[in-house]
Structures are given as structure tokens and as C-alpha cells.
């Protein structure tokens, strides 16, 4: 999905494994001139799938805004370095199981109330409590008592049974010590836990959230970040403005930000070129051909590499896709090198591993299902009993996915004789709603942008039973067991080794198909004099100077 952004320093790990901030912002810290201070920018975006509640947002349209409106305990440097403290004063542990967290005093939410330890504890308990339906609830599974507040639907979303009522409403592993301190006890030692705390699902929620409905709050969210919410006009724009009482490092140097929702990325690009849009995260594929975007934008063109992967996933809840030999056959019939060369003009790299290689703990070349082998693909397809009917591959049509999805479908059709075609869904929001409702009737685009820098984020949410983004409902008990062992490993090295074992099983099952590793071509307007990208390629709005 996503990651936060901002400062470019790193945390120091002491003998007690304490997380202590040791860096500062990569900007000069002086802010911009008078023009910048009162300036405004317009950036491109997509309509969020849901109201803006951190623990219920799993896609990048809403996630990008949450990353701007909230600040968490830790943050991820723009340069890809180790996490560093943000709202946390310190995070200490001696055993990787019990974490003592101290927050900075007297920081504020946008409604003027003070951010306290209980705002984290209450938010995490709400997100974990399964009757609340938070899509990111599985991220709290490390915490002791999670199983008591989160129960699973026994026969799946289509079955008649409902999940049993949880035994408790609060996790036993969370304890408020005082206004500025809380304690987290995990079910088992988990070395990666501090790294995860910058992900948006771990953000604090103000008291106002609990006084009303989550849906209504999400339509007018109250965060604690450098910008605050102003208004939301569905499918048109979201307006944000500087939060003048923000007290942490990454203060805004401009005042207003408008996130404009485009139904077509070529229209957004035209606005960028003409100066009517100030930042576009990814220019259309059509602009990449012949480096047109570079000649159009000149020194306003930004090329970057991001820890993201273009993926096509299978709806394993559909009986037609439940044979792993069929899934592997389809994957082996795809020539990823040809896709990246001819469709992306070399701006992407063919995927050969299950986690993006920029991710700590990722092992290159571990996706044997990513190899191009038509003979083996035909053999496996025959062993699977073939494929009857039409294979539709879906994508959201409001971004540049048509060309590469059609190319993949044509390769599958040519190399396997399957009647395959690509079909666009008009908007990303509708596309994601269909995926979350488990109503996809064919394979579908399912790219992944890491939430935090560790290989765990490429396994647990995507391929563990009940994972927050395991949208195809893939399930393998051996993978679950290995992932559980990996998550509870006493060190990151031991964790990564165990995740590598889980990935070998995932590679045999092929629940999805990694296609390409992300390369990003962004652009900004002439009025933007200075800016930085986050480590996942999003605009760091706190860095913008005009």
C-alpha cells in the first residue's frame, strides 16, 4: 500500500533497543519566503475508497491523504533509511516483547485537543475490534489479546454464518501508564514491531472520533499532522490547509493543498504541462514513449525508483482459479521482459521476486513463477485440465494500466490459447470496492506499495490467511505457520530467514503474479522551486517551497 514520509535522519538502536531520534529534516528548516508561506498547490489524486479512518484505509488514494493529515510515532526517511522517531519521544524494549512508549508532550490534534497516550491505545483497540470492520485490523495481531477482540467469519463472506462475538473489546497487551506513556505487550517477541509503527493504521485518534460514527468522522477527519482537512467534494477534490499549531520537525512551508481527482491521467498530464497542476506522481505511459515527458517538462521531470511492484492477483474464491498449476501456467506464459521493454520503454524492471528488492529482507530471484517458460506453462495447463470460457483481467481505467494489462492478456492468449482479454473499471474507488467485496470475476491488477520497510510487509498482509490485503482469499496453513514464526523471531535476520521459507511455498502456490518492479516518472509545475519525494515516491508536502 503505502508509507509515511518526511525526515531524512535515522534512529539509533541502543543496548536496550531504544529508538531515539538522531536526525533532522532534509530541508533547511527555515521555510520558504513570503510567497511560499501563503502559497497553494494542486496535486493529482484518486477518490478514496472509504471515509478517511487510518485503520480502515488500505489503498493509496486515501492513504496518501492520511499520511499528510496524521503524524505517527515513527516516520520513514525520504532517502529510504531506517525509521526515526516522530511523535514518539522514545520506544524502549529489552526483550522485543514489551515496549515502553513515551510520546512528546502537548502536541495537538486539529480540533485543539492534546494528543495523549490513550489516543493511541483507544485507536488501536478500535481498529483491532472485529465488529468495527476495520480493513487493517490484522496489523494489530502482534499484540497480546488480539485473538480476544478479533474473530473470523467461519464460512467466509459469502456464507450464512457470522463471526462470533469477541470475548473482549480491548486488547490485554495495551496499557495506559499516564498521559504521555503507554506500554505494549506482544504475544511473542517481534523485532520488526517498532518499524511498523509509522504505518497509518497505528495513528492516534482524537476523543471526537469515539463520540460519533467512524463513517461521519472519516468524511471530516481530524488528524494531528502538518495539514488539516478542509473539505471533500466527491470525485472532484479534497482541500487541505496548513495546521499552524503543528509542533514537530516537518512543518509546512506553504499554506494550502488541493488534491484534484482525475478520471483520466492524460487529462492530469495536460494540466501538468500547461501549469494548471503542480505535481503529478506518475505521468501516463503515453508520455514515457520516446522520453516525451522529459522534453515536455525539462528540468521539472523527476525520475525515481520506488519499493513497489505491479501485480496481477487471482480471485481464489472463484473455483476456476483454485488449481495452483493453472495459476502457475498463466504466470509462466507472461514475458515480463517484453512488457517492461515495449510497454514501459525500459522504465520498469521485470519482477523476479515476491518482495521488491529495495525492501530490507527481500531475496532477489525467488519468484520461479515469474520466469518465462511457454513449454512448461502449456504442460501445467494440460495437467490442470485447461481453462474453460473467457479469462478477463480487470484494471482501473483512471490510470495508465490499459496498455500493459492488454499486453499481458494477449500474451496469455497467444502462448496458452486461453480466451483472455483485459477490461477496465472506470474508477479506482469502484475497482477497489469490487475487490473488497470479493466480487471479481477474473484476475485483476493489484500492485503493492510497501507500508513499512521490511519483507514482513510483503508477506503477512498479502498471503497470510485473513491478511488485511489478502483480497483473493488465499490460504495455506504452512505459510501461516512459517509467517507466525518469522514474525515472532527474536532478531530481524532470523525473521527474514523464516519469511524466506514461507515465500518458497507462496512461489509454488502462485496466489498472484508479480509483473514489474516500480520505476516512477513524476513532474511538477514551474512555480515549485523545491520539493522532495517520500521513500515510496509520494510528494512530501512539507518540503514544498514556491
From TrEMBL:
<dbReference type="InterPro" id="IPR000914">
    <property type="entry name" value="SBP_5_dom"/>
</dbReference>
<feature type="signal peptide">
    <location>
        <begin position="1"/>
        <end position="27"/>
    </location>
</feature>
<keyword id="KW-0732">Signal</keyword>
<dbReference type="GO" id="GO:0043190">
    <property type="term" value="C:ATP-binding cassette (ABC) transporter complex"/>
</dbReference>
<protein>
    <submittedName>
        <fullName>Oligopeptide transport system substrate-binding protein</fullName>
    </submittedName>
</protein>
<dbReference type="Pfam" id="PF00496">
    <property type="entry name" value="SBP_bac_5"/>
</dbReference>
<dbReference type="GO" id="GO:0015833">
    <property type="term" value="P:peptide transport"/>
</dbReference>
<feature type="region of interest" description="Disordered">
    <location>
        <begin position="149"/>
        <end position="169"/>
    </location>
</feature>
<dbReference type="InterPro" id="IPR030678">
    <property type="entry name" value="Peptide/Ni-bd"/>
</dbReference>
<dbReference type="GO" id="GO:1904680">
    <property type="term" value="F:peptide transmembrane transporter activity"/>
</dbReference>
<dbReference type="InterPro" id="IPR039424">
    <property type="entry name" value="SBP_5"/>
</dbReference>
<feature type="domain" description="Solute-binding protein family 5">
    <location>
        <begin position="83"/>
        <end position="469"/>
    </location>
</feature>
<feature type="region of interest" description="Disordered">
    <location>
        <begin position="28"/>
        <end position="59"/>
    </location>
</feature>
<dbReference type="GO" id="GO:0042597">
    <property type="term" value="C:periplasmic space"/>
</dbReference>
Amino acid at each position: 500500500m503505502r508509507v509515511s514520509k518526511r525526515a531524512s535522519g535515522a534512529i539509533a538502536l541502543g543496548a536496550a533497543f531504544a529508538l531515539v531520534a538522531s536526525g533532522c529534516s532534509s530541508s533547511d528548516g527555515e521555510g520558504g519566503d513570503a510567497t511560499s508561506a501563503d502559497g497553494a498547490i494542486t496535486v493529482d489524486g484518486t477518490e478514496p475508497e472509504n471515509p478517511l479512518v487510518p485503520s480502515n484505509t488500505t489503498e493509496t488514494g486515501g492513504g496518501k491523504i492520511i499520511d499528510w493529515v496524521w503524524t505517527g510515532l515513527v516516520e520513514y526517511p525520504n532517502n529510504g533509511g531506517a525509521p526515526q522517531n516522530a511523535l514518539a519521544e522514545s520506544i524502549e524494549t529489552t526483550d522485543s516483547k514489551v515496549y515502553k512508549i513515551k510520546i512528546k508532550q502537548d502536541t495537538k490534534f486539529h480540533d485543539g485537543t492534546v494528543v495523549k497516550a490513550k489516543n493511541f491505545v483507544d485507536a488501536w483497540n478500535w481498529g483491532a475490534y472485529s465488529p468495527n470492520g476495520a480493513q487493517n485490523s490484522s496489523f494489530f495481531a502482534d499484540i497480546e489479546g488480539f485473538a480476544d477482540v478479533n474473530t473470523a467469519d467461519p464460512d467466509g463472506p459469502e456464507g450464512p454464518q457470522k463471526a462470533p462475538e469477541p470475548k473482549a473489546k480491548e486488547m490485554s497487551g495495551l496499557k495506559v501508564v499516564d498521559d504521555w506513556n503507554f506500554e505494549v505487550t506482544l504475544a511473542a517477541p517481534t523485532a520488526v514491531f517498532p518499524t511498523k509503527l509509522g504505518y497509518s493504521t497505528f495513528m492516534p485518534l482524537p476523543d471526537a472520533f469515539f463520540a460519533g460514527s467512524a463513517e461521519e468522522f472519516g468524511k471530516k477527519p481530524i488528524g494531528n499532522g502538518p495539514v488539516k482537512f478542509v473539505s471533500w467534494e466527491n470525485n472532484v477534490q479534497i482541500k487541505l490547509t496548513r495546521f499552524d499549531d503543528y509542533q514537530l520537525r516537518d512543518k509546512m512551508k506553504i499554506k494550502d493543498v488541493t488534491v484534484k481527482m482525475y478520471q483520466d491521467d492524460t487529462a492530469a498530464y495536460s494540466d501538468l504541462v500547461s501549469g494548471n497542476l503542480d505535481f503529478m506522481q506518475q505521468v501516463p505511459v503515453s508520455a514515457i514513449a520516446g522520453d516525451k515527458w522529459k522534453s515536455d517538462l525539462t528540468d521539472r521531470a523527476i525520475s525515481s525508483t520506488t519499493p513497489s511492484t505491479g501485480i496481477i492477483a487471482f480471485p481464489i474464491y472463484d473455483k476456476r482459479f483454485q488449481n495452483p498449476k493453472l495459476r502457475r501456467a498463466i504466470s509462466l506464459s507472461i514475458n515480463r521482459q517484453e512488457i517492461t521493454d515495449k510497454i514501459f520503454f525500459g522504465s520498469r524492471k521485470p519482477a523476479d521476486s515476491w518482495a521488491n528488492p529495495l525492501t530490507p529482507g527481500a531475496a532477489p530471484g525467488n519468484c520461479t513463477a515469474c520466469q518465462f517458460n511457454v513449454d512448461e506453462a502449456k504442460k501445467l495447463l494440460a495437467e490442470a485440465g485447461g481453462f474453460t470460457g473467457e479469462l478477463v483481467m480487470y484494471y482501473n481505467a483512471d490510470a495508465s494500466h490499459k496498455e500493459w494489462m492488454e499486453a499481458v492478456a494477449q500474451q496469455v492468449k497467444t502462448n496458452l490459447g486461453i480466451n483472455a482479454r483485459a477490461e477496465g473499471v472506470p474508477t479506482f474507488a469502484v475497482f477497489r470496492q469490487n475487490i473488497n467485496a470479493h466480487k471479481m470475476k477474473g484476475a485483476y491488477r493489484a500492485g503493492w506499495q510497501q507500508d513499512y520497510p521490511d519483507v514482513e510487509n510483503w508477506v503477512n498482509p498479502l498471503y497470510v490467511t485473513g491478511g488485511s490485503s489478502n483480497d483473493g482469499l488465499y490460504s495455506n496453513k504452512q505459510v501461516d505457520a512459517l509467517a507466525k514464526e518469522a514474525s515472532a523471531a527474536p532478531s530481524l535476520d532470523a525473521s527474514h530467514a523464516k519469511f524466506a521459507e514461507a515465500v518458497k511455498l507462496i512461489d509454488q502456490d502462485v496466489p498472484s503474479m508479480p509483473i514489474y518492479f516500480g520505476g516512477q516518472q513524476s513532474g511538477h509545475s514551474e512555480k515549485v522551486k523545491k520539493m522532495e519525494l517520500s521513500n515510496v515516491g509520494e510528494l512530501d508536502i512539507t518540503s514544498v517551497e514556491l
